[in-house]
Amino acid sequence: MSTGQTVFPGQQVLPTGHICWETEEHFQAWLTGSAKEAHSGERAKPVGTGSDLLEFEIVQSTGPKA
Q: Residue 14 CB: number of other CB atoms within 10 A?
């Protein structure tokens, strides 16, 4: 069933809020859609500007309902 919404297969809640998209096309549709305006504007300065962190600890993971 299509709701006109961009779909991603699941989300893993990581310390940085990492999201995995189903396809590149879904990501590009989200990036150029209304979400771009919602996430634009003034932002706080970053706490840091670099990192040697090469992996994440998954604190919660969700996926499609069976």
A: 14
Query: Whose CA is closest to 55, among 14, 26, 6?
Result: 14
Confidence of residue 54 (pLDDT cuts 50, 70, 90): low
Per-residue pLDDT, averaged over 26-53, amounts to 76
* Within a domain: 20: yes
Rounded distance between C-alpha atoms, residue 30 and residue 61, angstroms: 21
- CA pair distance 61, 52, nearest whole angstrom: 24
Element (H, E) at 38: helix 34-38
- The pTM for the full model equals 0.33
Give which of 9, 29, 32, 28 is closest to 19, Cα–Cα: 9
Q: Which domain holds residue 27?
A: 9-34
